[in-house]
Amino acid sequence: MNIPDHVAIDASSASLSIRWPDGSAAQLPFAALRAACMCAQCRKRKYDGEAPLSRPDVKLLDARPSGYGLQLVFDDGHERGIFPWVYLERLAKGERNDVV
Ligand SMILES: [Zn+2]
């Protein structure tokens, strides 16, 4: 598995900076991450065919490495979602349309 060696919240660009050991890097906008939230509530919305709840100005408060992925804490109370490393990698490549 390709685990990033650097993760940082970049408030000035409202995005999460991720860098992988192979030198590739990505800036994932908070709003896109929030739309891709993997918490139980958001996954249920996805299964029910409802659009994700997200605000364009949503903020990412914290990003905590958690075993197989990154737990992202948003300012709208969504904080239970662990984004698996592979999922983040896929989001970074612009393939953000599917459930892992
Ligand atoms: Zn959520």
UniProtKB/TrEMBL annotation:
Residues 10-88 form the Gamma-butyrobetaine hydroxylase-like N-terminal domain. Gene3D superfamilies: 3.30.2020.30. InterPro entries: GBBH-like_N (IPR010376), GBBH-like_N_sf (IPR038492). Keywords: Iron, Metal-binding. GO terms for molecular function: metal ion binding. PANTHER family: GAMMA-BUTYROBETAINE HYDROXYLASE-LIKE N-TERMINAL DOMAIN-CONTAINING PROTEIN (PTHR35303:SF8), OS02G0197800 PROTEIN (PTHR35303). This is Gamma-butyrobetaine hydroxylase-like N-terminal domain-containing protein. It comes from Paraburkholderia graminis (strain ATCC 700544 / DSM 17151 / LMG 18924 / NCIMB 13744 / C4D1M).
